[in-house]
Amino acid sequence: MISYRRQKKFPLLRLPLLAIEEIFKTMHPIEIIHFSMISKRAKAITKNMTFYSKYAIGLGISETMSIAINGTNGLVSCIYLMISNERMDGKVEEYENNGFIQRKVYKYSKDPVEEWKQLSKYVLDIFKRQTIDVLGVALDVFVDQNVSIIDFLKTNVKSVNGCNLNQWEEENDVDEHAAYFLENIKINNELRSDLDTKNVNFDMKIPKNLKELYIKKADWIGYDKLLEIDSAQVSFGTNRISNKELNSFFKKWIAMETHLNLELLAFEFKSLEDLRLFVLHDIPHEVVDEGVKRTLITDRDETEEISGGIDIRRIDGKTATFFVHYTGFSMSVH
What we know:
The protein has nine helices and 17 strands. The radius of gyration is 25 Å and the shape is elongated. It is of the alpha/beta class. The strands form two sheets. The protein has a 15-stranded mixed sheet with strand order 6-7-5-4-3-8-9-10-11-12-13-17-16-15-14, with helices on one face. A two-stranded antiparallel sheet has the order 1-2. The longest helix has 15 residues, at 112-126.
């Protein structure tokens, strides 16, 4: 029953399911969750709604644990934030700009990790989600609970579309937990790692068939590991791949022996001239005039008009252009 005006009650739960669904469509996700907690019948009716496909769930594991429910083409975002400040408990903030609406609900907890687990499980159940849209993990915040958090995700989440791994303090060693995470969590589309990996010989599993892979500190990525990667767009920060190994890699790409689906390879290198002299010295290539402009993939599926560059061609006719961009040194396939 819902109160309206003063003393009257509105028998919402007695309405036909289609009528209830129309009312639910006017509610934002946090209202839907709160309604589902009224009773077992309210929860059962909530779970029977059929329009939840428009919602995507995001989870954040950091100093402030978060659960985000995003919908309406990304224009509405409702976020639960687990906090240790009791005075903030129950506070609601709403932000609106150019049609985008964000609502934040602060929830005090003495044990934010455990309460985050319980609420995450409940939200996934209500919105009938097995795949997380975005997962952000700071691996050096709850170090003693990392394994239990990863085990919770493995049990309750089928897969993750986009994942961001990071750490707050550079000196913290999170290699072991990073390896455990990648061994147990299935990532579908994108992995971004801002971890400061300590062991250059550490063998971490890289997910297969990714659209985008970004590794800030890739000193543990050697030639053999590079050949194992099959992501469409690959970006490395520091790495230990030699000029000789790059030469071998590009020859394999030209011969269609590796990375057939590669769209972008971004890596640290000094200059185009050094690439031509020390890597492409025995590979047929063309130095393109600066007056020639082409639209190429430059960063995370973004395209931009690029002048000049150096071209190499694959045996099937595809071209890879090397160029220097504000994001770094890149090879774009077109």
